[in-house]
Structure formats: C-alpha cells, structure tokens
Amino acid sequence: MENLSQLKIGFIGAGNMAFAISQGILKSGDIPPSSVIVSAPSKNNFARFQAMGVAVTHSNEEVVDFSCLVFLAVKPHLLPTVINGISEHITPQHIIVSMAAGITLATLEELLPGGSRVMRLMPNLPCMLQEGALLLACGTGASQEVGALLKTLLCSCGLVEVGPETWIDAHTGLSGSGVAFVYVFAEALADGAVKMGMPNTLAQRIAAQTILGAGRLLRDGGKHPAQLRAEVCTPGGTTIHGLHALEKGGLRAATMGAVEAATLRASQLGRK
Ligand SMILES: NC(=O)C1=CN([C@@H]2O[C@H](COP(=O)(O)OP(=O)(O)OC[C@H]3O[C@@H](n4cnc5c(N)ncnc54)[C@H](O)[C@@H]3O)[C@@H](O)[C@H]2O)C=CC1
Ligand SMILES: O=C(O)[C@@H]1CCC=N1
C-alpha cells in the first residue's frame, strides 16, 4: 500500500475545491508541494497553486501519469468527457476520487476502466483552513485499506467520515452546500445589526466571530444545540424575544428545506 509521504497527488480541475483540499493537505506538512500537480484548460486559476509550489499543467493525462491518487475536481457535467480523455492512462495502481456532486460510484465505475479503484468524496470549502467536514464512500474496487489511506490523508482537511454512498447526497446538502447557507445567515445577522445602527464592516466581523464561537462551542463542548440555546435564553430576556421572531420567520423549516432541496438536486444531478 502507498506510503503517505511518498504519495503523488493530482487534481484535475484547478478551481475552488481543488485549491481548498490541496491547501489543507499541504498545511499538514506530510506531503511536499513537489508531490502535487493540478490541471485545467486555462491558466486563469494557476497562480494560487503555483504560489504553494504545486506544479500546473494543461494536460489531464500528465496529471494521471504523475500521480497515484487523482482527484476529479471538475463540475459534474464535465466528468464523462474528462474521464474519457484520461481512461487510457489509468492503471490498477491509481486511486481515483471524484468530488463531483451527485455523480454516483456506479456511473464512475462505468466510465472508468474495469476494476478501477474509485471513491466518492464530498468535501466543503473550509478544507482550506483544515476545518472542513468530509464524507468518503468506497467503490467496489477500493479496499478498506485504500479508504483508510484516504481518510488519513484528508484528516488534514478537517473532520473525515467514511460511510455508505447513500449518505453522500445528504452530506452535500448538509455540509458541501451547507457552508453557503451559513454565509447567508451570517449576512442576515450582520444586516440586522446594520439596521439597528452598527457600521457594516464591524457588524460583519462580529457576525463571523459569533458564528465561529458558536460553532466551536457546539463542536467541542459536548452539548446538544438545544441545551446551549437554553443557556443563552434568560426568561423574559432578549434572546427568547429574538428566537420568537426567528420561529415566526420559519427559520427551522427553511433550513431543513434548504438541506432537502440541495440533497434532492444532488441525486438529480446523478441521474443519467
Ligand atoms: N465549491 C464547493 O464548495 C464544492 C464543490 N464540490 C464539487 O467540486 C467540483 C469542483 O467544483 P469547484 O471547485 O467549485 O468548481 P470550479 O469551477 O471552481 O473549478 C472547476 C475547475 O475545473 C476546470 N476545468 C474545466 N474543464 C476542465 C477539463 N476539461 N479538464 C480539467 N479541468 C477542467 C476549470 O478550469 C476550473 O479550474 C464540482 O464537481 C463540485 O460539485 C464539492 C463540494 C463543495
Ligand atoms: O453547489 C454545488 O453544486 C457544489 C456541491 C456542493 C457545494 N457546491
């Protein structure tokens, strides 16, 4: 099995997610930048990879030839064309990891050479700060050992869970897309303070810190969110009045609906 420190890693697609994961991996210090390569048709996105010391190329085949572990980091609709272009270069030694929303392991296995070691990954943007939430699912050709290797590598990007593929679309709604839902909440939180007279930049900074602090306490404090919420609510106080306004606005239903809609869209993207 591949040794982490000697692993050669390639990204096909040089966009936001390839950048976030490569940053997370390189920050761990386990992988030198010289072991990483990234490809894209245009050089528009190359500068931030080059700044990390990562090699760049316009050739997807070159990425496959260089790497043992290949992340497919293009938009879902481009996957068939991209895989078609690299298929002849894929060997049984390669580990292919798709992060494309919706695209199933069955589709990937159909597109790739028979017996390929393939996995699905659903990451999110905070991988770049090593605070991502990632879910991995193994294809039929990927052994538990391969799953364990990937998990070890990706731990530098944040929380990594390995689970059945049936969870991936829900994880996409919860966390891949969920990051954007939190940003909308952050904007709205700050806008509320702006409405009440606070300068915008200060309100944005305080909203960000409020979400970070609440998130860390929730993740690390070992308490259920309902318990933490109760600890903030003084009877007859400010918080319960604010919460009443949130409930009247349907925040919970809207949030559940957002996760549901994103999950359903992911499974729709996966339908052929
Ligand atoms: N952005 C996010 O927060 C998340 C994205 N994803 C998934 O990650 C994948 C990539 O998404 P983003 O990074 O956001 O997209 P992006 O648009 O930022 O990056 C896509 C990259 O692919 C490149 N590309 C286009 N055609 C190509 C080709 N034929 N060969 C090689 N590269 C090509 C583009 O030049 C660009 O660099 C998608 O499948 C998406 O579903 C998953 C989780 C979160
Ligand atoms: O919006 C999308 O389709 C991608 C997948 C999860 C986050 N961004």
Automatic annotation (TrEMBL):
Q: Where in the cell is it found?
A: Cytoplasm
Residue positions binding NADP(+): I12, G13, A14, G15, N16, M17, A73, V74, K75, P76
Keywords attached to this Swiss-Prot or TrEMBL record, sorted alphabetically, are:
Amino-acid biosynthesis, Cytoplasm, NADP, Oxidoreductase, Proline biosynthesis
EC number(s): the record gives 1.5.1.2
Q: Which GO terms describe its cellular component?
A: cytoplasm
Q: Where is the Pyrroline-5-carboxylate reductase dimerisation domain?
A: 165-269
Group of enzyme by EC: oxidoreductase
Which superkingdom?
Answer: Eukaryota
* Major subcellular site: cytoplasm
What's this protein's family per the entry? Belongs to the pyrroline-5-carboxylate reductase family.
Q: Known HAMAP family for this protein?
A: P5C_reductase
Q: What is the purpose of this protein?
A: Oxidoreductase that catalyzes the last step in proline biosynthesis, which corresponds to the reduction of pyrroline-5-carboxylate (P5C) to L-proline using NAD(P)H. Proline is synthesized from either glutamate or ornithine; both are converted to P5C, and then to proline via pyrroline-5-carboxylate reductases (PYCRs). PYCR3 is exclusively linked to the biosynthesis of proline from ornithine.
Quaternary structure, from the entry: Homodecamer; composed of 5 homodimers.
Q: What is this protein called?
A: Pyrroline-5-carboxylate reductase
